[in-house]
Amino acid sequence: MEIARTKASFVIVGGGSAGCVLASRLSERPENRVVLIEAGQDTPPDLIPEDILATYPGRAMANMNYFWEGLRAQRGNGAHIPPAGRAPGFFHQARVMGGGSSINAQIALRGLPRDFDGWQDAGAEGWNWEAVLPFFRKLEHDVDFSGPLHGQDGPVQIRRVPLNRWDPFTQAIGAVWHAQGHAYLADMNGDFGDGYSAVPFTNDGSQRWSSARSYLTRKVRSRPNLTILGRA
Length: 232
Ligand SMILES: Cc1cc2nc3c(=O)[nH]c(=O)nc-3n(C[C@H](O)[C@H](O)[C@H](O)COP(=O)(O)OP(=O)(O)OC[C@H]3O[C@@H](n4cnc5c(N)ncnc54)[C@H](O)[C@@H]3O)c2cc1C
Prior knowledge:
Blueprint: H1 2-5, E1 10-13, H2 17-26, E2 34-37, H3 50-53, H4 58-61, E3 72-73, E4 89-90, H5 100-103, H6 113-121, H7 129-139, E5 140-142, E6 156-158, H8 168-179, E7 184-185, E8 196-197, H9 211-215, H10 218-221, E9 226-229
Parallel strand pairs: 1-2, 2-9, 5-6, 7-8
Antiparallel strand pairs: 3-4
The structure holds flavin-adenine dinucleotide.
Cofactor: FAD
Protein name: Glucose-methanol-choline oxidoreductase N-terminal domain-containing protein
Pfam families: GMC_oxred_N (PF00732)
């Protein structure tokens, strides 16, 4: 009944990609009393399931314990989809601490600068590239790249598979693109032209870095003003 007595200044419903960040950042201020409620299981640092940590995202995606069972959605009714394919089907949405970041494909791509600038032009004040870049830098520890476009001190580990470690099939495809005149872009989060590239992942080379793992560390969880409720 401790929970019922907790007077919260912030209740965060959903410990997903965003909720974990909110809980961590809001509870930095001791005067805030923060309650984070997640419907799925919690994943404390020492108890993150192996299939969530796995580099191959298909393992977590295949575990129905991390999803909203019975969630169905119609995927579209475009003419290109045959009638049999239009029936509502299972819709993957995470139900676990870290939300999508615990089960997704780990692809860590920023949008294009011109897209953010387009948002600002359309009226989203404060969302141009110059305004969002500090936050991309702040969230990451980019293992491969530094400089003005990248962060080294953020909690989310980001890494690419270097060209010389691509499997022979992918290298062969790259060689064909190269021969066709397409440029190899070393950093997809910094070289914004057309070309082919190694995808940045929220992964340190051997394990996934979900939002839960990155932001709800042991130290953060020990804050007396933060209450985390899993399966709630
Ligand atoms: C299969 C899949 C693959 C993806 N691959 C990528 C990728 O490679 N790269 C990428 O950038 N994006 C990817 N995405 C998208 C990305 O994961 C999501 O955009 C992101 O996680 C959304 O964050 P969110 O915080 O808005 O919601 P979520 O991360 O979905 O978090 C919502 C959380 O709220 C909880 N919740 C909901 N209702 C309640 C309630 N009533 N009470 C308590 N808790 C509740 C849920 O259980 C969930 O944990 C993928 C998504 C899916 C589903």
